[in-house]
Amino acid sequence: MQNPRLATEAGLNSYEIFRDFLIESEPFTQENGLLSGMRKPLRPALTKRYGEHLEALYTELTDREADELRALRRLGPDQPVPETVLRAAQALLGQQNGDLEPGARFLDLGGDSLTALSFSQLLKEIYRVDVPVDLVINPVNTLRRVADHIERALTSEHRRPTADSVHGPDATRLDVADLQLDAFLDARAIGRAERPAGPLPEARTVLLTGANGYLGRFLCLEWLERVAQRGGTLVCVVRGSSAETARARLEAAFDSGDPELMERYHELAARHLHVIAGDIGEPNLGLDDRTWQRLADTVDLIVHPAALVNHVLPYDQLFGPNVRGTAELIRLAVTSRIKQFTYLSTVAVVFGNESAADESADIRTACRTRGLEGDYADGYAASKWAGEVLLHEAHERFGLPVAVFRSNLILAHPRYRGRLNIPDVFTRLLLSLLATGIAPGSFYVRDTGDGSAHYDALPVDFTARAITSRHR
Questions:
Q1: How far, rounded to the nearest angstrom, does the alpha carbon of residue 292 sit from its chain's CA centroid?
Q2: Is the CB of residue 99 less than 8 Å from the CB of residue 90?
Q3: DSSP 447
Q4: What residues does each domain of the chain span?
Q5: What's domain 4-155's architecture?
Q6: For 449-463, how does the pLDDT look when each residue is reduced to its tens digit (9 = 90+)?
Q7: Can you tell me the distance from the alpha carbon of 93 to that of 352, in angstroms, rounded to the nearest whole number?
Q8: pTM value?
Q9: 234: β partners
């Protein structure tokens, strides 16, 4: 049975939640007044007959969940971590005792980013360690992996930086002064970094993050074509339990039913693509020391579009993958030898700040502080702003060559079938307009004067080419 609270948040009501129960108790018929002549449930009749009973069931379930959560907060720290993680998931997802296994994935159990946030905060309250939402909703992570993360954090002598440790607990205004590379990078790694003596070499070995993302897959194609001309290699870091599963996930991102696209990808990937299983949110990108050092020695350019793109989650939950992950890539960029660095930011960084929109401006002086007032997507914009701040410091301290691209709306590919960014709000709006043939008045809010609306958006192929063509 669904958790009524979660179902209500999803837009369902009590009667939809318990429909099966009601039908089993008493079939809906016209004779008993529960069905209309169109054979649809009559809600006033249902309310009159079952409302009181349903409210009692709802209260019982809510109280049961509250009791379980109180017990977890009180007793959880003294219980084995895997057991507490399972009980927390059961309570928040409305699962029955014994239904969950350590190998289950949170998203497969019906969770989403918002319930993952509640899950993350609950575990943080119990264990006093950071449990990022990205860890919970990672498509390759299980509840066992979440428990492993907590156990490592509890036994580790060195805690990784968090939003609380960098900016202070519950900060509502972020300051440039908080974001110092010393908080993220090992002092020995900083000491070894030297400024490049001359021009950097041509990018023959390119490291790309987020290659299975919407923009990332076309950056992957563009860079495969470029390194192929140079006899080079594109290295993609993709989440997966092994290199084989990571490569399979990347291939699945290209498989939209367009044979021309798959043929192009396979032809280029066969000779010039190397996929490794990793995670930008983990220490060393989730790589073993040998693989990390090999990348530090051989990579010429790091292209970093990977991020947790979520306009609802707060900054502290986006800090791990978007800020700490960028810092980890900076560490790679200054280890062994200085590398070129391309960073995909967002145009939201400069909203409301014209001086920051100047491409020659130092973001650290143009936008010294960033407020977290709870506005739409302010956590995501702040996390990308923080990444820009760290990269400016790396450029100043080590001479790290950095190119920052602040992307706006990215539209579908004009050539390949099925290349739609389905989760994107604007894409869904366009699909709705096509399906219904109607548009709300607000769609034309930026009328250009000639009766047509204008939106600042570019096709994904153009965006990918613009980014890659910046490098030699």
A1: 23
A2: yes
A3: B
A4: 4-155, 192-410+461-468, 420-458
A5: Orthogonal Bundle (1.10)
A6: 665 666 778 899 999
A7: 39
A8: 0.81
A9: 206, 273
Q: Which fold has domain 192-410+461-468?
A: Rossmann fold (3.40.50)
Give the SS3 label for residue 106. Answer: coil
Say if residues 219 and 305 touch (Cβ distance below 8 Å).
Answer: yes
* Residue 364 CB neighbours (<10 A): 16
Cβ–Cβ under 8 Å, residues 159 and 360:
no
Residue 210: both structure tokens together:
């987020």
Produce one character per residue of 253-267: b if its CB has 16 or more CB atoms within 10 Å, e if not: bbeeebeebeebbee
The encoded tokens of residue 85 equal 């993680």
Residue pLDDT, tens place only, 21-67: 555 555 665 556 666 666 666 677 767 767 777 777 667 666 667 77
Give the DSSP per-residue string, 2-63. Answer: --HHHHHHTT--HHHHTHHHHHHHS---TTTTSB-TTS-B-HHHHHHHHHHHHHHHHHHHHH
Residue 73: both structure tokens together: 């907060």
401 φ, ψ (degrees, to nearest 5): -75, 120
Q: Using CA atoms in the order 234, 236, 241, 242, what is the torsion angle rounded to 10 degrees?
A: 0
